[in-house]
């Protein structure tokens, strides 16, 4: 059973940094699919700029033509803060026999110990960390210890067990951030070539970053 990649984020908006990372994970780690799960109520930040429905539509537009990509609205339907651990438990119920691979950028991984019930994440899923420009893997502290204990370089380990391993994977570095895109659009500039045209059209239509 091929692993299910789980890619959560605010996606405010989704861009080629997210998409290329997910695509490289899908291919290199031999995932059966990657599910993009837009965060409903992000516990770590204030309100989002585009609302939940707009962010969902942008993800949907971005992935429409890519086989193996799916958008999943479970965090948008659930009330309360969107905790990843709750999302993973519902996915585990749905896919009792498939490995789950939680995809995180290195910046997100470095903040993991502040996540709700973070010490239970590896009971339910593997964690796959994508290198992001300017961020380094921790070698000390609780996350350094976790990498020592659970880290693996072998992709096969993500297939032969359902959860519990950490794999750090180098991806093409695309220094694109949602924050910069929002600033650019707010300044009246065009975000073309930072994201699929279908996402840019959604931004135009909704004026969500104007
Ligand atoms: P913001 O600028 O609003 O903070 P962000 O793109 O960093 O946006 P999210 O949309 O929440 O934030 O990111 C979702 C996930 O994608 C996170 O795990 C983040 O580390 C990762 N990610 C974001 N941008 C990139 C990129 N350019 N390359 C690789 N991973 C990325």
Which strand order spans the largest sheet, edge to edge or round the barrel?
Answer: 3-2-1-4-5-6
Mean pLDDT: 94
Report the C-alpha radius of gyration, rounded. Answer: 17 Å
Largest sheet: 6 strands, parallel
> Might you state the CATH topology name?
Rossmann fold
CATH superfamily grouping: HUPs
Task: Briefly note the structural class of the backbone.
Answer: alpha/beta
Distance separating the two termini: 44 Å
Bound molecules: adenosine-5'-triphosphate
The global form is globular
- Based on the coordinates given, report the CATH architecture: 3-Layer(aba) Sandwich
Helix and strand run: EHEHEHHEHHEHHEHH
Strand content: 5-15%
What ranges have pLDDT less than 50 throughout 5 or more consecutive residues?
A: none
Q: Under the CATH scheme, which class?
A: Alpha Beta
Domain count, please report it.
1
Number of strands: 6
Count of individual helical segments: 10
Percent range for helical residues? 25-40%
